Prior knowledge:
heterodimer, A: about 350 residues, mainly alpha, B: about 230 residues, 2 domains, two-stranded antiparallel ribbon, about 10% strand
Amino acid sequence: MTPLQFEADYAPLWAELDAALTHVEAGRKRWSVSLRKRPAQTAEPPDAARLAALYRAACEHLALARSRAYPVLLTSRLESLTERAHQLIYRRTDYGAARLAQLFLLDFPNAVRAHSRYVLVAGLVFGLPLVLLGLATYFDPGFILTMHDAQTVHSYEQMYGPGAHSIGRDRGADSDWMMFGFYIMNNISIAFKCFASGILLGVGSLFFLAYNGIVAGSLAGYLTARGHGETFYSFVVTHGAFELTAIVLSGAAGLRLGHALLAPGRRTRRAALELAARESAVLVYGVVAMLLIAAGLEAFWSSASWIAPAVKFAAGGVCWVLVIAYLVGQGRARTAAAGAARED
Amino acid sequence: MIPLPAATLDTIFVSETPEGIALQLRPAGVMARSYACLIDALLRFVVIVAAMAVLSAMSRFGMGVFLIVVFALEWFYPVLFELMPGAATPGKRAVGLRVVMDSGLPITPAASLVRNLLRSIDFLPVGYALGLVMLLVRPDFKRLGDLAAGTLVVHGRSAHLDGPLPDAEPAPPARPLSTREQAAIVAWAGRAARLTPERLEELAALAGPITNGAAPGSHTARLAGVAQWLVGRR
Lengths: 344, 234
């Protein structure tokens, strides 16, 4: 068969595929460029099965054209056709509320449990400095000056000291919103860096975890020693349930990346890294959601001085129980049922 | 099948689809991506300045919204645009780039998130230095974020070098030709529109044994005739 004959035989199929692709592509772009004039929709929406059949035919023709060294113009035409069809046929369409529900009801808590060893290590790297520095500054408040300068310590003391209008900072009525923005920017950025720097063989995540543990622990110990414990703990207890957990989880996700590079097991380093990134990204989704909740609580609830500390402690306790129960138990039954069904 | 010389000589990244055809992706190098990055940075700067101008009038509430805008622009600007149909930030679109998975498929949300979070590491120690080194040493131009996410930044459209064959009286070659020789002659004819007549003649003269007996200066016409004969015109 000569190239001309080949083209004459199959060109109608290619034209049909081209028209179908153009039709679908125009439909996809409509929402993004609705202001521009839409191309006239002449044909009926293409039948999916027909489109797939045309795509497979074009793939076959491309393989033939390549192996028979047909003119480049012909092969490149088939290449661009198959490439467009490939993009359309294999695109994901399962975005939306159902996917989001599946993420938070199943995938995220499952991912946390699948990474339990990393979560444990991250928790220790964050928690140990927190406790140690907390004790150190509790018994020797002057020790905090090795971590923070006197000015910062003074401003912290003013924020949590007696007579502060609202806790955690000095501010007016509408600064709730300002602080909401600040917490989103600051806390989520820290979590992102904590995750991303894990690719440096895990060192970056370890650093961010330990550093944040040191800062939080020394502050807590110092304020407790100075007698501002109730104000301080009633401030942090509610949003801490989400914020501290999220920092530990982002560190765990980062450690997963670093571990994949250090000990790839039976995969190549690159394949191990790709797998680790794919699986730990689920953790990052959850971390973002938890930090958004934390920022909202911190700005509008934790700092409200009209709420009695006892109420805050109760609410905070409930939040801690809920967060831990969610991470430990959510989706476990459904996952087990799905696993059992697969084994049957 | 004719081995693709491009696969070894060029930076073409070949990925095979389930249908067994090889998609040829053309990863984008340092300069194209730097331009894209620069355009994106300028664009974000303009948005930040505009947001500041508008929101600063709204005191502290405006400040809070402004901080959220800055945060979203820093981390989610690329993610948002990469997940839209064009799969490219405005900067990349202006340069003609888009982001795809290694398989040539549209980028997934997780991959986009990973490659853009790791941007902060590629930025280290200053001004994308690490990312730059990665781009320079790797033939597929992947920075750390691309490696972890399994993504490629590719040129969206390639220049079409080959056109239709020039008209000529079909003529059989003087001797049987191997597949590679046939491919070379047809490819030569396909580029007729882009070469000067002198260069075309020079190249055609190299195929002297095939255009046997052609007078000097008429090699082009004869070889174009052979090309026409090869694609099936009789």
